Fold this sequence. Notes:
Radius of gyration: 18 Å
Low-confidence stretches: none
Order of helices and strands: HHH
Number of helices: 3
Number of domains: 1
InterPro entries: Cu-R_CopD_dom
Domain Copper resistance protein D: 4-110
Transmembrane segments: 44-64, 94-111
Helix content: over 70%
GO cellular component, one term: membrane
Largest sheet: none
Mean pLDDT: 95
Pfam families: CopD
Number of strands: 0
Distance between the termini: 39 Å
Amino acid sequence: xxxxxxxxxxxxxxxxxxxLLSGMAMIGQEAAQAAQTxxxxxxxxxxxxxxxxxxxxxxxxxxxxxALYPRLNAAVSASDWPAGGRAMGGIRRWVGVNLxxxxxxxxxxxxx
Length: 112
């Protein structure tokens, strides 16, 4: 499992960066258009919730990738299976939290 997670987590990192950059670009375009027309730009609450939720999800991903995954690799390298199991349990727990956050964000955006 540890050998499969590495490439997957690297792909998630690339996707997260692309999502962050594209979201910033879209918000920037809207703000620029408002400025060109002389209006004020205010992000709708659903956009703010989506952006804040996305940043929180990225922070959770960073914890998984840069704290828990190295613990898993170290445990596997040392054949310390109980420590590896604890690391996998933590990864599973935080992936579940991220999944629930993602579902909540989609619901907020479509309902708000």
